[in-house]
Structure formats: C-alpha cells, structure tokens
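Troubleshooting log. The previous run stalled partway through. Resubmitting the same two chains, unchanged.
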Amino acid sequence: MNPAAHTEVSVTRTSIAAVAILIGLAVLPYVIDIYQVQLLTYGLIFAIAALGFNLLLGSTGLLSFGHSAYFGVGAYTVAFMVRDLGTVSMELCIIGGVIGTTIIAALFGYVCVRYTRIFFGILTLALSQVIWSLAFKFFWVTGGTDGIRVPGRGMTLLAGLIDFKGSGAFQKFVFSYYYYVLVIFAVVAALMWVIVHSPFGMALKAIRDNEVRARFVGLSVRRYRWFAFIISGAFTGLAGALWVPLNGLTTPDILYWPFSGEIVFMTVLGGFRTFTGPIVGAIAFNYLKTYAVASSAYWQLVLGVVLVVLVLVLPNGIIGTAQQLFRKLRRH
Amino acid sequence: MDRRTFLNNIGLTVGGAAAATTMPVIGPSVAQAAVAPKGNIPSTPLKMGHMTFLTGPAAVLGEPSLKGHLLAAEEINAAGGILGKRKIETISADEQAGTDANVKELRRMKLSEKIDLFTGVISSGNTPALGPVAEELSLLTIFVDGCTDFLWDKAVPNPKYTFRITNIQSADGVTCALAAAQTWPKAKKIAHIHPDYSYGRNAFDHFMIAYSKLVPGAQVVSEGWPKLGTTDFTAHITKTISSQPDLIVSSVWGGDYVALYKQALRYGMFKDAKFASTIAFGVAPHAIGKDHPEGAIAGVHSNYYFTFPPGNRWPANKTFVEKYFKRWNEYPNFQSDGAYHTLYMYKTAIEKANRLVGGWPDEEAIISQLEGMYYETAAGYLYIRPDNHQGYKDAVTGFSKNVAEYPFQILDPATMITIPIRNITAPPNWPKPGQGHNDPTATYNWIKETWPQVT
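Second attempt completed without errors. Output:
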C-alpha cells in the first residue's frame, strides 16, 4: 500500500468515526439531565481552546504557558461588547472576540517566536500576566476580581432567531447553546484537522522535529511559527468568547497563569501527540475538576495526584495510551 | 456643627460593662415555640447547599459559617426537623475554588443535587456572581456574607429569590470611620491597606467619605492594595510606615490579616500610628494572638463579637455562645452567628407560612415571610428589608484588649461601640448608582448629600 492510499483510508475512517461521535453527542441532551448538558458544553468549549493550544505544542513543539491571555482576551472582548456596546447577538460577539484575540496573538506572537524552549515559555507567561494585571488592577474598567457579568439568557443566537425569555430561561439557554457550541466545535475541529494535515501543518512538524534542516529546506521558520501562534491564539480566543455567556461572567481568574496551566494539563491529560488527545483531555479535565471540587475540600490535592500519576504512568495521555494498548492487542 | 453634636445625633453609644451577676438567668424569647404544623408535611429530607472557605487563608474567617450552619441543622434535626418532619441534609462546598468554579458548583447543587436552599458565601467577589445565578435558577438563597452593596445596587437590583443576612458593606467602612473620628479626632494623615477587590475598595471609599465629613482636612498619605490571599505584606508595611501616617486603616481579613499584623509587629508599624480595622476580629476569635496590639479599633465587619452584649444582658447571645462552644470547642465569629440564624429564620418563615396556607409552603410563601422579618439573633435584632432583601442590624465595633479569661485577645465589651444602622446606611429607595449619580454606592451618595460637614 502506498502512503497516499493509506492517508485516504485513514481520512475515510476518521470521517466516519467523527460523524458517529457527533451524532452521539447530538442525541445526548435527550438522555442526560440539563446539568450534564451544561458540563459537556463547558467541556466542548475547553476542547476548542486545547485544540488551538496543541497546534503550538503538538505540531510546532512550542510549549506556551500563556494561553490564558488569548482565552481571556476573547472573553473580555465579548464582555465589553455586551456591557458597553449593548451587543446581544452571539455571532457579533464571536467575531469581535476572535478579532480582538487575533490582534493580541499577532502582537505577542511576534515577540515570542523569536525564542524557543524555556525562553518561549517564560515569555508567553510574562506577557499573559501583563494582560492579567490590567484586568485585575483597572478596577473601574474591568471590575477587578468582581469581573464583568454576561448573562447567557440575555444573548440571542443565529442573528436573533433564538432568544431566551420567561421562566426556565437558563435551562432553555443551556439546551440551545449546547447545539450551538457543538456545531462550532465540529467546524473548528475539522478546520484544525485540515490545518494540521496541510502542507503548512507538515512544515510546522518539520520545524518541530529539526529546525536547522527545516531552514535548509527553505522554510521561513520564524514566520511559520508566528502564523501557528496566531492561529493557535485565535482558536483559544474563540473558546473564550463562547465561554462567557455560558459561565455568566468573566473574572481575571481566566487570565491568571494557573488557567494557562489548566490548558496545558488538559492537553497533556488527553495526550498532546495525537489530534484527538486535547479534545478528550479537555472534556475529561472539566469533569475531573468539577467533581473534585464538589466532593472534597482537598480538590487541589486530587488534581495534583492525577497530574503526577499522569506524568509517571501515562506520559502519552489518555488517547496516546489507548492507542498503544490497541496496537498491542492487534499484534497478539 | 461640631463633631460631638454630630456623633450624639447619630446615636453612637459606648457599651457599659455587664451588670453584677445577681440578675436572673432568662432564656431567649420563644417566637419559634412549637405549634403543631397544619396539613400534610412530606418527610423527605430538605437538601441544603452551604458554600464557604474551607481551605486557604480565608478559611479561618469563613469555616465558622459552616459550623454555625451545622449546629443549627443538628439542633433542628434533633427536634424532629422543620415542621417536625423534614430533616436537614447539608452539602458543603469550598469557596476557595474560585468564582467561576463556585458558579458551576451552585448550578450543580441546584440542577444535579436538587437543593432546596443555598446559604453561606463569604467573599464579596462571589455574591455578585452567584446572586444572578440563583435568580436564574429560581433557587431560594440566603447569603451569610459577601455583603457588598454592589449585589443589590447593580448585580441583582430586584431580588426575588436571594437574601442576605450580614450588615451591608458600606456600614462597615462608615462604622470604622465614626469610631476612629470619635477616638482619634486629630488624626489627619491616613494610610490605607486594603485587599484589592470590591470589599477593599468599598471599605476605602466609605471610610473616607464618612471620615472626611467628621475630620476636616483628612487626607490619604498612602494606599496599599495587596491581592486577596497575599501572605507577604512587607512592601505594603514599609510603604505605610514611610508615609508617616497618624492613622492606618485596613480591611485586610482572615488569614491575610493574621499574617499582616504579625509582620507589621516586626516592623513596628503599630508604634507610631493609630490602627483602625473594619474586620480584623472577624476571624474565628482564637486566631488572634495576645501579641496583637491593644487599643486598636478591631472591627467585626460591623456585625457581631461573641463577648457583646456581655453576661446575660442579651440572653440570645449567651445561649448561642454556650451551645457553639459546647459543639465545636471554640468561640463563634460573626459568620457563625449569621449562618446559625439564617437557618432559624428560614425555619421560622416556613412555620409562619405553614400556619397561613397549611402543608409544605411553596417558595413564594416562604419568601413573603422572610421579607420584612424581624428576628432576635445573638447580635441583636435583625431586620430583612423587603425592597432589597438585605438584613440590617445595629452596627458594632470595638477595641482590642487582653484579658485573663481567654487565651486570645478579645474585643473589650466595656468599650464596644454600637451605632443604629439606619443612621449610617441609605434609606430604601435612595437612588442607586446610575440613577442620577455615579457614586460607588447609594450609601456613599447619601452620606455625601445629607451628612453635615463638621467644622
């Protein structure tokens, strides 16, 4: 079998699997209660952020410790639009949020991609903390730690076609918003799949694996990294924009460095060497944190132990390990 | 108008010592006397969610809230439950998880655990986030604290399901200012150290507006805004000292405050300046060591301290402190009082509603009984204003003192300061921010517009 045929088969297989999973996800709200629907919506949104993040880590080999900045800029842009401009259309908010994030990611990326490894990580961390301190300190603009409220039921979806009034508005909102997010997630995941498997994505992998050779082949390493950075930031910003109305408010917590750490955690949990790893990791992490907080006062300890076990026992994450097991079983 | 006339007008009183113990020991009033409930009462348990700080530096102030709640729940359950049938089951959650996680947890409690009542919440950063969520979910909620004016001024301007028990926050800064102006009227150079979030901002604003009305020429010489949860205050302490203030004002609270005062002692911060805090003694009483400076204004969030009223002058306090100590082997703070009486007020509202409509009353009926309720708590009479669902009681603060009876420093009951609440907070229907003024709160505007300037 030649490599091209192999790719075609895997494309077909992947598409079939993806469609099956999407159908499953679409039926789910009729089976589970509204609280679980809400949790899953959070999970899907974080999955978009982690997908974006992994374009840098998995494909380009750059570990960003500052992705909270892009998530937060997306979220705060929407919050400002709703509060100060009176925007209610979710589509306008998404466009605004993504544009805002793209600008910031382009600026920060321009600086950061000049470095790699730990220097890159520290720089992304430092820049994200600049944004955090702005949100935290400009109390009269951003509400400081009080944040800005963006009630989901005040928004409209699909250019005003769907709005939420009357009793049970929150439940109605969650139900519709789940499908809204699911569709965006499907589009975005497909888009990311195309990016990763495009010549551009291959170039990123070449740069990741051997920077010097990539340069000799004629790739403009810095420019490729910059583009990857911008795309990665924009995806994460989209997630931030989607997250605000669901969460009902935005606070500097999502700009603070531990949240960057959580994005890394999600990706590592799922497995950053695979395409689906960050998706599964994000959804799993969301459940893990929610139930750890709910069940124990020592929830930080629970998360810490999980992280240690992960690094020691499952360095390839959930998906990576599952694939290994699958291959082993096949061989026997 | 001179200062003394003004303070007399406002009704600020300094509490006398306890009378001799020859008084007969009387119990608290029995408004909640057992009457057989009307109609059929289901025996399914009542589920309650209680959220407070269980970990981190804020826990030393917040955790007593859960203890107060559990004590009340155990007492009610031991007596057969509410209306003699429904026992209370409590799920608790750690507020330390952060505002976003708290919002998620509240939704989980309502949608997944199906709680009947949500109580607790300590931080003013959290109630404006949780209040709208509770309204959204139609979940009856009685916040124990998180008492920012912002909740009713902006976040939930027309509350239906949400209530709050502890005094409104603006009263805290004003109480501290009145006590300081009465005690040290010559202090003009003021240095501030406040946590950098809504509570600190609120304390700063209301202290200054009230204080500058009473002490002409008062000026801010230094501002420090440590992040909530900070444990190293060195930079703020040295900045404060170098500004050579007459008076240092702080609203740093919980474990943060314990760290602040211990570090400030090492730098001699309390030597050359007076010290006034809105909430220093708001922590569980045993958290304050005997090394704390004596004679400081050590506020309790303008709510409650267990030594006051002393003796049997207010039996509801005496019995509460005894029961609390017996159960937890420590003394209560204002959160314990708030959480304990939250549950009893809820119980009372249900009993009243039951007498009217019979059976287990629906939420509308319970809410109508909570609105306007006047209740005897350990801290004094508590009134729930119907328009904003906020609890009001006379504000207290006091002076720190070491006594032999307690292994920690206490507020001296002989010099406690009590101020009628209606004299320091905006009346109902006073314009909220955005309605003709842009001041931080309605009370701020009310003080600015209606208080005379002392000359």
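Takeaways: Residues 31-254 of chain A form one domain. The CA atoms of residues 153 and 169 of chain A lie 6 Å apart.
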